[in-house]
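Why do we bother with holo predictions? Because pocket geometry can differ from the apo form. Keep that in mind while you read this record for nicotinamide-adenine-dinucleotide.
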Amino acid sequence: MGLLDGKRLLITGVITDGSIAFAIARLAQQEGATVVLTGYGRMSLVERVARKLPQPPSVIELDVADAGQLDSLADRVREHVDGLDGVVHSIGFAPASCLGGDFLDAPWEDVSTAVQISTYSLKSLAVACLPLFGEDGGSVLGLTFDATVAWPGYDWMGVAKAGLESTSRYLARELGPRRIRCNLVSAGPLRTMAAKSIPGFATFEDAWSSRAPLGWSNTDLEPVARTSVALLSDWLPATTGEIVHVDGGFHAMGV
Ligand code: NAD
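The structure, written out:
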């Protein structure tokens, strides 16, 4: 008996087998879920990576900034599954000017891109998937990096994450009456492709290794995958608008 037996999930954000979304998809399948992936941009690469999952899933294209692709998403998902019980938003992007210490100089056009792709897209994705949820509702899940404080070099991505955390709470408010929960996992630093584009990422890794009371491995995606699967399951049925930290306890320590 798996934790996600019978669940149908749409998972965004796989670009490599080191993506957080890949680890969530793998564990979800192991726990009995039927998974459909969305890919962005390099579709042949995403399809190749998808074949490394225990059960190679269907992959459909989704650029969260493309209104046409969002409008047709539900119909395209229906070609593979008859509905959804969960959606994973594992998407983030900020132009180079928005990261790395030039906080005061980043132009609005670039900041707006970061916010559209990393923040507003949680709402866009949830709304695009609404027709696929049944009367029992389901679970929408996103990934954040603790946005209650300012981090060196994370800059406008940090602002975008603060917006994502707020968006998740508003989605919880809007979608609760349909029995759809919306929660975020706040992960510690993990060496994914997105992380490599953050100048000074090593500073975070050093801080975590000295401060996280449980310790922290920046290459182990299993803790984030496990918590994500739990949030996608029926085992947190009255939890919404929540941010669950999967960071080795870092956020709770003063120094
Ligand atoms: P990743 O590079 O593997 O995944 C980022 C994904 O975003 C990619 O699959 C990319 O294709 C997708 N994406 C970018 N623009 C898109 C668009 N316009 N439409 C659709 N998809 C688009 O990196 P990751 O670390 O696995 O990132 C997943 C999520 O986890 C992000 O929200 C990230 O901010 C968050 N997160 C990462 C860390 C970390 O340390 N790696 C920590 C906390 C939170």
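Residues 8-247 form a domain with the Rossmann fold fold (CATH 3.40.50.720).
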